[in-house]
Amino acid sequence: MRKWGTIAVLAVVLSVGPALPSLADDHLASSTKITYMGRTSPPQTSEVWIGEAKSYVREGSVATITRQDLGKKWIVNQRTKKYLEEPFPAGPAAPPKEEKFRIQEYGWNYHQPVYEWSVKETGETAVIDGRTCAKIVLTGEADYSSEIRELWIAKDVPIDLARYYGRIVEPNLEAALVPIYRAAPALKNGLAVKTVMTEGRPIAGSTVWETILITAEKADPPAGIYDLPAGFSLAKTREELAGR
After folding, report:
1. What does each C-alpha distance from 197 to 34, 64, 229 come to in angstroms?
2. Which of residues 158 and 4 earns the better pLDDT score?
């Protein structure tokens, strides 16, 4: 799923200095457009709120609300008016179910590639939305597939970067990227103001995700942002949550 790909790329953050005073919650918003085969989709917005022991992450019509104070996580679909409830922190993932072999589908199964990642500090800088940004490139290579992430990183952002990384970024990174983020100093000191992610696959043309940071601020959260919306019903499965 690309769902978390957009969020993880936007949130290339981590701090090594003292945290900012918690006078209000952290609020970030971004806009992402996707280009495939010469066509670009309308921009889709994403939003993050982080409070004390609470967080809210929305991409499109789906939001994830984490309540550390209650030991719960809710996945909410605004379109279907359904939600799933999971314990937080989650226990170990269940092993995947073995699917019955069907000769009609032989050769059609395509799995997410497992990339070997490298990071490069290019030395390039650019001023984006008034912030001086350093360009960093992450390159993932796998058999017949590749992924390039061009990140423009700014340091002067008024949020608690350590909290943002620990609560939002690292939990949603693929396993191979966690040591890359932890070990690269250039990824530990700021926030991605702009990201261009290019993915090449063997059975399709390149797909490009371009994400722009719209908002990064300390602010008072909207009332009820960390609560279940009224009138939503509990879904039994993810398929029901998605309306399938």
Report:
1. 10, 23, 33
2. 158
